[in-house]
Amino acid sequence: MKQPATFWGGLGALALLALGGTASAQGIATPPTGGNGFKVGNGRLHPYFDLETRLDSGVGYFSPTSNSEPNSDPVSANLASDVALRFRPGFRLEIPSSTLAFNLGANLDYVLYTGLVTKNSSAASRMEGAADLNARFNPDAPLTLEVSNQFARSDRTRTAAVGVGVLSLFNEARAKAPWRPGGGALELTPSVAYAVEFFQPLSSVSPVGCTESVCDPAAVERFDYGNLRVGAEGRWRFLPKTAVVLDTHLDVRSYFNDSTPGASLLRVIGGVAGLVSPKVAVTAKAGWGQNFGSTGGGTFLGQLEGTYLYSPTLSFKAGYLRTLEPVAAYGFFTDNRGYGEVRALFGGKLTVSGGLAVDFLRFDGGRNDTVVGVNIGPEYQFYPWLTGAAGYMLGRRSSSVDGGGLNYSRHEGYARLSVTY
């Protein structure tokens, strides 16, 4: 039998769902502040190591026969819980320069399931990892070239339609050229990016009640895709801290092994962003998204976000976002998202943050999902080289499509120690 799945229901597909247990942005988090690092040219190399323990109610789907339930259906199972240990060595290389500023971060992340709660869950143990590269040529010049790449191997995918545990291999290469003519009040940034994502089934066991193809672990490889994005962003600062913004992006999505209709999504959105007072920042945008693929379809886009800086150590953020994204199996989906965040710093060492996000997803063809994400927890810097963190994350999803793979709650409690030099 194949390995049991580590389930996340495909919610990592949404770049929009960055709060709480709803999604995990693939990439390299900045290691804890502190330490001198090793000198590399004009820059520094900072190695770090994270040790984390996590109680997770959504480890994966296990064959009931492996859990001493011989009378159960052997081809379907409920979501299981377990305790995991994560060992994450990594580094961050930062080289500042007026000709070539260079940043590189990478880590390996070994996930070890202990089997303390669910028998035989250790079969789901695996190696994950991530790497981010960013190079800026002539960063202080009016015309700059930025080249970057993001790589991630994780069970948190970017495909919102997938409702079964999968291992995702994602890579995106990007290039953009910010141009600031004159005094810099006007900035124009053309960009291009190409992303691929490949999926691997982690289990032959299906969630109880799932009959749709998006719940079938054996079929997940058919959602492998390539995505070309070209765009341009414009910003005109008509006041010192307020600007008119206009963003245009075209996504051309194709699938390597599937008959899902390809999508060609053009999004144009513009508005204003900046400070309305020394403590209040507002972003207000409106626009339109249109699918020029074979299925057609378009919708209104918008964003309204406000940030309140109560004090230098306490801030609040809340907003609403409506966007259009390509997706496997359905072509595209619309996301209406409300979100909020609070962050506080106490004594210069203790940071407490909390976030809430609610997403209403409507897939082309009629499927509707509701996703709730919560993330709350403290982080404390014991020494410049040692940081501790703990927290709780909730990811809850309900769908108009029946089945455990698309209707679930995932609770995660964790504690982490980070050492950096």
UniProtKB/TrEMBL annotation:
In its keyword annotation, does this UniProt entry include Signal? yes
Q: What keywords are annotated for this sequence in UniProt?
A: Signal
Instruction: Report the leader peptide range.
Output: 1-25
The source's domain of life comes to Bacteria
**Descriptive protein name:** Uncharacterized protein
What is the organism of origin for this protein? Myxococcus xanthus (strain DK1622)
